[in-house]
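Let us practice reading a record.
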Amino acid sequence: MAKLDIIILCGGLGNRIKSKSKNLPKILIEIEKKKPFILYLLKLINLKNFNKIVLSIGYRKNKLIKFIKQNPKLNLNYSIEYQLLGTGGAIKNTLKKNKISNPFFVVNGDTFFNFKVSEILRKRKKNKKKPIILLKKDEKGKRYDQFKIENKKLILSTPTNKSNNLISTGFYLFYKENFKIKKKKFSIEKDIIPNLVNKKKLDYKISKSRAFFDIGIPKDLMRFKNFFKKNENNN
Protein backbone atom coordinates (compact mmCIF):
# COMPACT_ATOMS: atom_id res chain seq x y z
CA MET A 1 0.00 0.00 0.00
CA ALA A 2 1.35 3.42 -0.99
CA LYS A 3 2.19 5.79 1.82
CA LEU A 4 0.00 8.85 2.27
CA ASP A 5 0.93 12.46 2.97
CA ILE A 6 0.24 14.31 6.21
CA ILE A 7 -0.46 18.00 6.82
CA ILE A 8 0.54 19.38 10.22
CA LEU A 9 -1.44 22.48 11.18
CA CYS A 10 0.85 24.99 12.87
CA GLY A 11 -0.17 28.42 11.59
CA GLY A 12 -2.25 29.68 14.52
CA LEU A 13 -1.45 32.69 16.69
CA GLY A 14 -1.28 30.73 19.94
CA ASN A 15 -2.84 33.55 21.97
CA ARG A 16 -3.50 31.36 25.03
CA ILE A 17 0.15 30.34 25.33
CA LYS A 18 1.91 33.63 24.50
CA SER A 19 3.06 34.05 28.10
CA LYS A 20 5.24 30.94 27.63
CA SER A 21 5.96 30.82 23.91
CA LYS A 22 8.49 33.68 23.70
CA ASN A 23 6.87 34.77 20.40
CA LEU A 24 7.52 31.38 18.83
CA PRO A 25 4.98 29.26 16.96
CA LYS A 26 3.57 26.72 19.42
CA ILE A 27 5.24 23.86 17.59
CA LEU A 28 8.68 25.43 18.26
CA ILE A 29 8.23 25.89 22.02
CA GLU A 30 11.14 24.19 23.81
CA ILE A 31 10.17 21.18 25.91
CA GLU A 32 13.74 20.44 26.89
CA LYS A 33 16.82 22.52 26.13
CA LYS A 34 17.14 22.92 22.35
CA LYS A 35 14.35 20.37 21.83
CA PRO A 36 11.19 22.03 20.46
CA PHE A 37 7.80 20.35 20.53
CA ILE A 38 7.94 19.55 16.81
CA LEU A 39 10.68 16.96 17.43
CA TYR A 40 8.46 15.08 19.88
CA LEU A 41 5.53 15.23 17.49
CA LEU A 42 7.59 13.99 14.53
CA LYS A 43 8.99 11.13 16.60
CA LEU A 44 5.47 10.22 17.67
CA ILE A 45 3.96 10.11 14.19
CA ASN A 46 7.14 8.43 12.84
CA LEU A 47 8.39 9.94 9.59
CA LYS A 48 8.58 6.49 7.99
CA ASN A 49 4.78 6.21 8.06
CA PHE A 50 4.30 8.98 5.51
CA ASN A 51 5.30 9.87 1.98
CA LYS A 52 5.40 13.64 2.52
CA ILE A 53 5.07 15.83 5.61
CA VAL A 54 3.81 19.37 4.98
CA LEU A 55 3.71 22.02 7.68
CA SER A 56 0.92 24.55 7.17
CA ILE A 57 2.56 27.67 8.59
CA GLY A 58 1.51 31.27 9.18
CA TYR A 59 2.32 32.99 12.47
CA ARG A 60 6.08 33.55 12.80
CA LYS A 61 6.51 31.58 9.58
CA ASN A 62 10.13 32.67 9.12
CA LYS A 63 11.13 30.89 12.33
CA LEU A 64 9.59 27.66 11.09
CA ILE A 65 11.17 28.01 7.66
CA LYS A 66 14.53 28.52 9.37
CA PHE A 67 13.99 25.37 11.45
CA ILE A 68 13.08 23.36 8.33
CA LYS A 69 16.23 24.54 6.49
CA GLN A 70 18.42 23.83 9.52
CA ASN A 71 17.07 20.27 9.75
CA PRO A 72 17.20 18.91 6.18
CA LYS A 73 17.31 15.29 7.38
CA LEU A 74 13.73 15.63 8.58
CA ASN A 75 12.72 16.19 4.95
CA LEU A 76 9.90 18.60 5.84
CA ASN A 77 7.88 20.65 3.38
CA TYR A 78 5.85 23.76 4.13
CA SER A 79 2.88 25.71 2.85
CA ILE A 80 2.51 29.38 3.77
CA GLU A 81 -0.77 30.82 5.00
CA TYR A 82 -0.37 34.57 4.43
CA GLN A 83 -3.58 35.43 6.25
CA LEU A 84 -5.55 33.56 8.91
CA LEU A 85 -7.77 31.11 7.03
CA GLY A 86 -8.94 28.85 9.84
CA THR A 87 -8.02 25.17 10.07
CA GLY A 88 -10.15 24.24 7.07
CA GLY A 89 -8.95 27.15 4.96
CA ALA A 90 -5.35 26.32 5.80
CA ILE A 91 -5.81 22.79 4.49
CA LYS A 92 -7.58 24.03 1.34
CA ASN A 93 -4.67 26.44 0.79
CA THR A 94 -2.15 23.61 1.23
CA LEU A 95 -4.01 21.35 -1.20
CA LYS A 96 -4.03 24.15 -3.78
CA LYS A 97 -0.30 24.86 -3.51
CA ASN A 98 1.07 21.33 -3.11
CA LYS A 99 0.74 17.92 -4.67
CA ILE A 100 -0.91 15.96 -1.86
CA SER A 101 -2.06 12.33 -1.81
CA ASN A 102 -5.75 11.51 -1.81
CA PRO A 103 -6.68 10.66 0.88
CA PHE A 104 -4.30 12.41 3.27
CA PHE A 105 -3.79 12.76 7.01
CA VAL A 106 -4.13 15.90 9.12
CA VAL A 107 -2.86 16.45 12.67
CA ASN A 108 -2.90 19.50 14.93
CA GLY A 109 0.61 20.82 15.58
CA ASP A 110 -0.02 21.34 19.29
CA THR A 111 -1.32 17.94 20.40
CA PHE A 112 0.51 14.81 21.52
CA PHE A 113 -0.96 11.35 22.08
CA ASN A 114 -0.23 7.75 21.10
CA PHE A 115 -1.85 6.33 18.00
CA LYS A 116 -1.08 3.88 15.21
CA VAL A 117 -1.44 4.98 11.61
CA SER A 118 -1.88 1.33 10.62
CA GLU A 119 -5.15 1.15 12.58
CA ILE A 120 -6.56 4.12 10.66
CA LEU A 121 -5.54 2.54 7.36
CA ARG A 122 -7.22 -0.74 8.30
CA LYS A 123 -10.36 1.21 9.13
CA ARG A 124 -10.14 2.91 5.74
CA LYS A 125 -10.14 -0.48 3.96
CA LYS A 126 -13.58 -1.21 5.39
CA ASN A 127 -15.11 2.15 4.47
CA LYS A 128 -13.32 3.59 1.47
CA LYS A 129 -14.10 7.20 0.58
CA LYS A 130 -15.23 7.96 4.14
CA PRO A 131 -13.04 10.40 6.08
CA ILE A 132 -12.04 9.26 9.57
CA ILE A 133 -11.72 11.13 12.85
CA LEU A 134 -9.64 9.74 15.71
CA LEU A 135 -11.45 10.09 19.03
CA LYS A 136 -10.38 9.59 22.62
CA LYS A 137 -12.23 8.64 25.79
CA ASP A 138 -12.22 10.29 29.19
CA GLU A 139 -10.72 13.70 28.57
CA LYS A 140 -12.28 16.50 30.58
CA GLY A 141 -12.64 20.04 29.30
CA LYS A 142 -15.15 22.14 27.43
CA ARG A 143 -12.49 23.34 24.97
CA TYR A 144 -12.50 19.99 23.16
CA ASP A 145 -15.00 19.06 20.45
CA GLN A 146 -17.06 16.25 21.91
CA PHE A 147 -18.97 13.31 20.44
CA LYS A 148 -21.10 10.33 21.35
CA ILE A 149 -21.72 7.01 19.66
CA GLU A 150 -25.36 5.95 19.41
CA ASN A 151 -26.30 2.78 17.54
CA LYS A 152 -22.77 2.73 16.12
CA LYS A 153 -23.36 6.18 14.63
CA LEU A 154 -21.27 9.23 15.44
CA ILE A 155 -23.14 12.27 16.75
CA LEU A 156 -22.00 15.66 18.02
CA SER A 157 -22.40 16.24 21.74
CA THR A 158 -22.67 19.38 23.85
CA PRO A 159 -19.26 20.11 25.41
CA THR A 160 -19.15 19.59 29.18
CA ASN A 161 -16.47 19.29 31.83
CA LYS A 162 -17.51 15.70 32.45
CA SER A 163 -15.43 12.86 31.07
CA ASN A 164 -18.19 10.62 29.68
CA ASN A 165 -17.98 12.02 26.14
CA LEU A 166 -15.51 11.23 23.39
CA ILE A 167 -13.27 14.07 22.25
CA SER A 168 -11.53 14.84 18.98
CA THR A 169 -7.78 14.26 19.15
CA GLY A 170 -7.18 16.54 16.16
CA PHE A 171 -6.03 13.64 13.97
CA TYR A 172 -7.96 12.92 10.77
CA LEU A 173 -7.96 11.11 7.46
CA PHE A 174 -9.57 13.34 4.82
CA TYR A 175 -10.29 13.26 1.10
CA LYS A 176 -9.74 16.27 -1.14
CA GLU A 177 -13.43 16.43 -1.99
CA ASN A 178 -14.15 17.25 1.67
CA PHE A 179 -12.55 20.67 1.10
CA LYS A 180 -14.39 21.69 -2.05
CA ILE A 181 -15.95 24.65 -0.29
CA LYS A 182 -16.43 28.07 -1.86
CA LYS A 183 -15.38 29.89 1.28
CA LYS A 184 -11.72 30.79 1.62
CA LYS A 185 -11.77 30.97 5.41
CA PHE A 186 -13.42 28.15 7.34
CA SER A 187 -12.86 25.61 10.10
CA ILE A 188 -12.54 21.84 10.29
CA GLU A 189 -14.25 21.86 13.66
CA LYS A 190 -17.20 24.16 12.83
CA ASP A 191 -17.70 23.57 9.11
CA ILE A 192 -16.25 20.28 7.89
CA ILE A 193 -16.90 17.89 10.80
CA PRO A 194 -20.54 18.92 11.59
CA ASN A 195 -21.43 18.70 7.89
CA LEU A 196 -19.92 15.20 7.58
CA VAL A 197 -21.57 14.01 10.81
CA ASN A 198 -25.00 15.31 9.75
CA LYS A 199 -24.70 13.53 6.40
CA LYS A 200 -23.44 10.34 8.13
CA LYS A 201 -20.31 10.48 6.02
CA LEU A 202 -17.72 10.50 8.82
CA ASP A 203 -16.20 7.29 10.15
CA TYR A 204 -14.37 7.14 13.47
CA LYS A 205 -11.72 5.25 15.40
CA ILE A 206 -11.37 5.42 19.18
CA SER A 207 -7.83 5.75 20.54
CA LYS A 208 -6.94 3.80 23.68
CA SER A 209 -4.10 6.16 24.52
CA ARG A 210 -4.04 7.36 28.13
CA ALA A 211 -1.56 10.13 27.48
CA PHE A 212 -3.06 13.16 25.73
CA PHE A 213 -1.61 16.66 25.75
CA ASP A 214 -2.74 19.89 24.13
CA ILE A 215 0.10 22.36 24.71
CA GLY A 216 -2.03 25.32 23.68
CA ILE A 217 -2.41 26.53 27.27
CA PRO A 218 0.32 26.99 29.94
CA LYS A 219 -1.13 24.36 32.29
CA ASP A 220 -1.05 21.59 29.70
CA LEU A 221 2.36 22.68 28.40
CA MET A 222 3.72 22.19 31.92
CA ARG A 223 1.97 18.80 32.17
CA PHE A 224 3.68 17.73 28.97
CA LYS A 225 7.12 18.88 30.18
CA ASN A 226 6.66 17.06 33.49
CA PHE A 227 5.50 13.93 31.66
CA PHE A 228 8.79 13.69 29.79
CA LYS A 229 10.90 14.54 32.79
CA LYS A 230 9.23 11.75 34.74
CA ASN A 231 9.69 9.24 31.91
CA GLU A 232 13.37 10.13 31.52
CA ASN A 233 13.96 9.70 35.24
CA ASN A 234 12.33 6.29 35.13
CA ASN A 235 14.51 5.07 32.27
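A brief commentary: DSSP finds seven helices and 13 strands in the chain.
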